[in-house]
Specification:
SuccinylGlu_desuccinylase, globular, Aste_AspA_hybrid_dom, Aminopeptidase, 13-stranded mixed sheet, binds zinc ion, metal-binding, binds the ligand O=C(O)CCC(=O)N[C@@H](CCC(=O)O)C(=O)O, succinylglutamate desuccinylase activity, OB fold (Dihydrolipoamide Acetyltransferase, E2P), hydrolase, alpha/beta, 2 domains, three-stranded antiparallel sheet
Length: 350
């Protein structure tokens, strides 16, 4: 009965019908792939007779209102149910924050994407805190079942503002390990040429997978937030095709990194909000990646201000409404082609 409902409604509708509680159950598809519904919005696929090459996690809606990637994963799951995707790799699909999806909000109580690597322990119990614990545990079970395989995690989002680079990815801080050209190539195949290299640890879902499981993991931004049903999914065709390749092909070496096409930035500053009156000098219409010169007063806070040093630097994810102590904006510096070549010589990129 629950199996029939899941197959007929698809993962998204099934999840939104029962966003906080669900019976867990499992069944097999006609091609013997094992399907397990592990929690609301979380489904694990285990192909039976394949020799897997990687363990893949695909998540969307960690911020509930980021609908385009949620719809994209919902379609992928329905195509797997219909045996239209050749699934050769174990896969965990996560729709992150179903109650916030219903309310068309980014969060109910706290930002779920700041609660990973155990940071939920610092917060009083609420939906997101309990969900972060649950997702950490399900992720841990999944990656531990396949610890002999390389781990992958694409955490799919959309941005609040418009952006000079519509699609871009955040490459989690690597603690000195070189950035991988093969990872940049995978992103380029998804239609994501713009990448920000983080300069410090974070408590995001992609950093969690990268730091704890050495996963090829990214936060991927796929355009601007719209309501359910208002997305032009044709804009995500490259992503969908590449995800299918990731799920089927044992060898991804045909995906080459194209440095001339790449738009790479290093994060230079993570500006946190310390006081309630933190406020930017620019308006809500200012796009991500707008550049400012040295000396520009970016924000005011208390009796002080945030001024651009060593510019030009561009703004990403500016949000003065975040909770105190949280990130209000990233400042990034564009890498030139010769910076990229230098990074290759220094083995920062290999
Ligand atoms: O548009 C915005 O301001 C936020 C979009 C978003 O949710 N971005 C992620 C990025 C996570 C990372 O830095 O890896 C977030 O803020 O959680
Ligand atoms: Zn998000």
């Amino acid at each position: 009965m629950a199996k029939t409902a899941l197959l007929q409604q698809g993962l998204l509708e099934f999840t939104l019908n029962s966003p906080q509680n669900t019976d867990t159950f499992g069944f097999e598809l006609a091609n013997d792939t094992k399907v397990s519904l592990l929690a609301p919005g979380v489904v694990r696929f285990e192909p039976k007779d394949s020799i897997p090459s990687r363990a893949i996690v695909l998540s969307a809606g960690i911020h509930g209102n980021e609908t385009a990637p949620i719809e994209c994963l919902d379609k992928l799951v329905s195509d797997i149910f219909a045996l239209e995707v050749k699934l050769e790799q174990p896969l965990l699909v996560i729709l992150g924050n179903p109650p916030a999806m219903i309310e068309a909000k980014r969060e109910l109580s706290v930002n779920l994407n700041r609660l990973f690597i155990g940071k939920h322990q610092n917060y009083a119990s609420c939906y997101e805190v309990e969900r972060a614990k649950q997702l950490e545990s399900l992720l841990d079970n999944f990656y531990k079942s396949y610890q002999h395989l390389p781990a992958y995690h694409l955490d799919l989002h959309t941005a609040i503002r418009s952006s000079k680079h519509e699609k871009f990815a955040v490459y989690p801080f690597t603690h000195g390990k070189p950035w991988q050209k093969s990872s940049l190539a995978l992103l380029q195949a998804c239609g994501v040429d713009c990448v920000l290299f983080s300069n410090e640890p974070a408590s995001t879902f992609s950093y969690h997978s990268s730091a704890k499981y050495n996963a090829v993991a990214f936060t991927v931004e796929l355009g601007k937030v719209h309501a359910f049903g208002q997305n032009d999914l044709s804009k995500l065709e490259q992503l969908s095709t590449t995800l299918q390749q990731l799920l089927s092909d044992s060898n991804l070496s045909s995906l080459g990194f194209k440095p001339k096409q790449a738009v790479l930035f290093e994060v230079s500053d993570v500006v946190n909000k310390h006081q309630e009156d933190f406020c930017f000098s620019f308006g809500q219409s200012q796009a991500n990646f707008t550049e400012y010169q040295t000396g520009y007063e970016l924000a005011k806070e208390g009796s002080g201000s945030v001024v651009i040093g060593n510019g030009p630097k561009a703004i990403v994810f500016p949000n003065d409404k975040v909770a105190i102590g949280q990130r209000a904006v990233l400042l990034v510096k564009r890498m030139s082609l010769s910076d990229i070549e230098q990074a290759e010589k220094n083995h920062r990129l290999e």
